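Recall that a protein's primary structure is simply its ordered list of amino acids. Everything else, from secondary elements to tertiary packing, is in principle encoded there. The following example makes that idea concrete.
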Amino acid sequence: MEEKRRVDKIFDNTYETKEIENSLLKFKIESSFGISKDLDEEVHLNLLFNDIDVLILESDYNKFNIKNDKGKIIKLNKAQINQVYGFILNHMKNKYRRIEIWSMLAEYFDICPTKFFNSLSNNHKHELLLDLDTKNSGISIKKIF
């Protein structure tokens, strides 16, 4: 049997040697791979979604995610939308902006954003509009509505 030769770490190191010599590497990025949003924004939205998901699943509102006999999730009514939005807002308003929470909840429960907004109490609507107004300080919400 052949004995293993001991390698001297100083004289026999491979620090400056290349693993691949003169080969042309080619690669192509898969067209399905890509993010349409800014990476930071994508991470931020994923964190928001996960935070909402955890809060909903650990609360009494998890019943709104249960499928019925036909395999469909029953849509929230106006009172339930207000309750869920208020609950999430109370737990997350210091971490995320109201407008982000509203948008993600509409997506989370698959509710048209207009219906979701119209179902909110006047106080919640006013706070959302103020939040949107401060975000886009150059645009007055009164001009939009």
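The first helix runs from residue 39 to 57. Residues 5 and 50 are 54 Å apart (CA to CA).
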